[in-house]
Amino acid sequence: MNPTQQFTAIIEREGNGYVSFCPELDIASQGDSIEEARNNLIEALELFFETADYSEIQHRLHTEVFVTRVEVKIG
Predict the structure, then answer these.
(1) Which ranges does the record mark as transmembrane (predicted)?
(2) How far lies 2's CA from each of 5, 17, 46, 50, 51, in Å?
(3) pTM, to two decimals
(4) Are residues 39 and 74 in contact, defined by beta-carbon separation less than 8 angstroms?
(5) How many beta carbons lie within 10 A of that of residue 26, not counting itself?
(6) Is the sign of the CA dihedral 35, 5, 3, 51 positive or negative?
(7) Nearest in space to 41 (alpha carbons), one of 6, 1, 3
(8) What is the pLDDT of residue 1?
(9) DSSP secondary structure letters along 21-62
């Protein structure tokens, strides 16, 4: 069995579909639904790990990613 690792997936609506993004590796995908965008991102990440060499993974990998909300005055 291959090892697994968790990554961040940010999914947002764009037009009539959804865009999914993994900030740790700067890899994105899309889909017609949230679930499809999520599954397509997983597939893109798995393909990346299947084809990328170690140096490319280390170059792209951001190990510290923080997702938070901020409050901003807009008026």
Answers:
(1) none
(2) 10, 32, 11, 11, 15
(3) 0.89
(4) no
(5) 10
(6) positive
(7) 6
(8) 76
(9) EETTTTEEEEESSHHHHHHHHHHHHHHHHHH--HHHHHHH--
Residue 5 has pLDDT above 80, yes or no: yes
Q: Which tokens belong to 47?
A: 């393909």
Cβ neighbours of 28 (radius 10 Å): 15
Q: State residue 23's pLDDT score.
A: 97
Residue 4 corresponds to which amino acid?
Answer: T
| Token pair in block for residue 9 | 């997936």
Q: Please name the helix (run of DSSP H) or strand (run of DSSP E) that holds residue 14, with its range, or none.
A: strand 10-14
Closest CA to 65 of 27, 29, 39, 35: 27
